[in-house]
Amino acid sequence: MKANRIHYGWIMLVVGILVVAGSLGFGRFSYGMILPSMQTSLGLTHDETGIIASANMFGYFLAALMAGMLASRYGPKIVITVALFWTALSMAATALAGGVASLVLFRFLTGVGGAGGNISIMGLSSSWFAPQRRGMANGFLVGGSGLAMAVTGWIVPAVNQAYPDEGWRYNWLILAGIVAVIGALAMLLIKNHPREKGLAVLGGDGAQTARQEDARDSRLMGVRAIFTLQGVRLLAFTYFCFGMSYIIYAMFFVNYLVGEKGFTQVSAGQIWSAVGLLSIGSAIIWGSLSDLAGRQRALLVVFTLQAASYLILVSAGGTALIWVSAILFGLTAWSIPGIVASFCGDLVGPKNAPAALGLVTFFFGFGQVLGPISAGYIKQLTLSFSGAFYLSALLACLGGVLALWTRQEKRMPAGGSHNL
């Protein structure tokens, strides 16, 4: 390789950011921005909006484990490509929905596609980046969600203003088109391993790093073998806490501002766009800090800041504190998925990283299913989302404690090569 040639790992990183943007940013988080106008148009109740949101999480939850195993066995590229086109089609179908039943179905299918794309690309980073660069790389990747949030915060209100009655339908179609384009780019540019380009892992110390990674990469582990690792089990429960806590904030922040705080959708969208922009850089910063200070310490600090964000939101008496809450969330929003993905690579090696990430994401996905349903029913019973945000703060505190107990084993268990 010529000294002045850009390592293909950086191209993979750019494509990966777009894959995350399509899988999660547009596929999942656009729901929160589109929800107010969609709810008004279709006459949805608050508990129905929670069920619809949870349908997406349920699809992600069910597909997470299989997506990771398929990516480890057959290579992430095919899984990512199929998942993105699947996501685009299901989002386009959402534009045609006429009520709760069809919305639940289409959001469920979008969640399935989101799992395939996101888990596969996050696991793939362990094949392209050495351990001392994984936190940084995954920080860039999860920033894709923030990029998409910033875009939707601008597009959705503009389209709704132009088409007050049917704007939400046009928004789903526009975003579906963007995801389809990302799918085409992934099909053309993604490579499953640096060897396909005649390269070594980016950020390692040459042959020594390659030998170390190949030694851990030689055996495909099954789910049961991976779950025997205590570090993986604790990481799974930690990730559950994040999944249930953050999704309440992400899904109902705009609705809370518009419905309970008197904000217009445009002003709420501006704050949400700021959250998205902040989250792009924050994921990189926290991922890099986890490379230096350790995954456990980084997770503890992030969970603490997120708990503060949730508590400040419900205690806010004015716009300034709402901005403080939004900024704290934006500064930490997608850092935990990046750190967890890096931790999985540390625990089981590059080849098994997608499978391990799929396993812990199974628990994360269960938390995401419970979060919106819980928030919707709390709102229906108390006429406020405040109780849901208090629940998020409690879960974030628990996640921080669990993170401190998570440790990396020195050796992986023997046997269990293909056990499911």
Can you offer a commentary on this structure?
The protein has a single domain, classed as Growth Hormone, Chain: A, CATH 1.20.1250.20. The two termini are 40 Å apart. The protein has helices at residues 8-26, 30-42, 46-74, 76-94, 100-128, 131-162, 167-189, 207-216, 223-227, 230-260, 265-293, 295-315, 319-332, 335-348, 353-382, 386-405. With 420 residues, it is an all-alpha fold.
Summarize the structure.
This protein has 420 residues and is mainly alpha-helical.
Q: Please, what is the average pLDDT?
A: 86
CATH topology: Growth Hormone, Chain: A
Largest sheet data: none
Strand content: under 5%
The end-to-end distance, rounded to whole angstroms, is 40 Å
- Compute the number of strand runs: 0
Considering DSSP H and I runs of 4 or more, what fraction of the residues is helical? over 70%
CATH class: Mainly Alpha
Question: Helix and strand layout, with pairings?
Answer:
Blueprint: H1 8-26, H2 30-42, H3 46-74, H4 76-94, H5 100-128, H6 131-162, H7 167-189, H8 207-216, H9 223-227, H10 230-260, H11 265-293, H12 295-315, H13 319-332, H14 335-348, H15 353-382, H16 386-405
